[in-house]
Amino acid sequence: MADLAYKTRRLIEENAMQIGLGRLTKSVTFDVRTLEALRGEKGPDEGKVFNLVRGLQREIDDDPGAAPVLQPLKDRAERILKDLENRKTTGLAAMDMLAALAAEKDAAMKAAADSGLSTRVFSVFWTLKDDEALRTAKISAMDLAREIEALSTRFPNAAVNPDEQRRLRANLYRPLLALGNEDRARLVDVIVATLFA
Question: Please, are residues 121 and 103 in contact by the beta-carbon 8 Å criterion?
Answer without folding.
Answer: no
